Write the structure tokens for this entry.
Amino acid sequence: MRSKLTLVALLACLLSSGLAFISAQVATEKSPKIWVGRYEELEAFIKTAPIVRAEDIPIGVTRPRHGFFAPGGLVGGVAIKALRPSRDTGYFESYQSEIAAYEVDKLLQLDMVPPTVERTFEGKTVSAQLWVDGVVQRNSLKGQEPPNPLDWNRQTRRWIVFHNLVANVDPNQGNLLVLREPNWQLVLVDHSRAFTNTTKMVFEMTGTDRPFFERVKALDKATLDAKIGKLVLDGSRSILRRRDLIVAQLEKLAKEKGEAAVFTP
């Protein structure tokens, strides 16, 4: 009888330990990006919640501002840009490009561009992008080993393809941000100079994962026109031309180096 009780106790202990391990694993794998799976909820809040104050951000040539919501809301604040479409700085710039980048991010299930909406602030139509706390600049991690090198490589290859797709030809390295905890997660901000009509591939592509590649490949005119047609210069035309170039380059590379070297699972 005593041996049976001991066995039951041992099994209970093992089960408890197993559940604790699974729980810890789930917690570890949970995304630190608070917007994932909450897009519509956060978009609605960012679009309508009163901004109680705003401060100039001392960095950034596109003059963003940090807007704050009242304490206790869904999120603490937003990055605000009031850039009207123009070439005043030598680059095409527009607050609408910030919104378009977020919409394309959602279509591709990238989850790197924080929720970004159009709203009114101080009598102007602006873009308002979720302010992400707890980030560091990607270049500050140079020389450090990522906690999950395979996942980090996957993220890196994705953002390179994405920036070529949306023609973010002037990305400041300070705008590649990283949420360090619990694992390194890329956050992409500042796309106000993207979505021009260029077909130049600024970033060298070595490949990407197959699921992401197939989503890029599946982009179509009707969907893009519906999501970004009124936000960018020529609707879907330029982005689809760049998409075709990306697909052609990566498929050519796969023929030269082999599928496994270019397209990861």
